[in-house]
Amino acid sequence: VYAGTSHGLARWTAPGxxxxxxxxxxxxxxxxxxxFRVQTERGQPVALWILRSGRLxxxxxxxxxxxxxxxxxxxxxxxLEVEAVExxxxxxxxxxxxxxxxxxxxxRAWPAAAGLGGxxxxxxxPQGLYVFGARSALRLDPDGDPTQAGEPQTTADGLPRPDVSxxxxxxxxxxxxxxxxxxxxxxxxxxxxxTAAPLRRVV
Length: 203
Hints:
Elements: E1 2-5, E2 8-13, E3 17-20, E4 33-41, E5 44-52, E6 55-60, E7 63-67, E8 79-82, E9 91-94, E10 99-102, E11 107-110, E12 119-125, E13 128-133, E14 137-140, E15 166-169, E16 175-179, E17 182-186, E18 199-202
């Protein structure tokens, strides 16, 4: 079990209890840790991805590896989502400038997310990729064109606030988004590039 704080990363094991993770190349031991994502292959975990002070780290059977996506040009990463290997294995990265797709073969920007503000949260669901920014939210087709059209959703559409900190899927496939002003639910409808997902505030 890994735990991230604003002062570093720790690991708990049954034999040794809680110990601090140290000595990751290029990362200070006290660097903040958060945005954990477990990558799976057919339901089995194969890698752990973590953001530490805006940098992307991968933990696999080979150990820790720092990943430096060329398309980001060193810009800090603020949001992270990872697909299962059988679904493409892509890593989705959110920064202040926008959305990026990182795969084994390429690293590219997604202009479709421009205008949302600095990205704060990403969530891949069967209905698409939900992108939450400082100003609004948007659902994209991850297998579509990076310049696809969409209709951003703001507080005027029912989003309590755009500062989404966590999301969860329920048994009906709806995505619930937590904000500092309340909870919103995105209905599970097929993705349509030109139409936003129905949104309602949960009260």
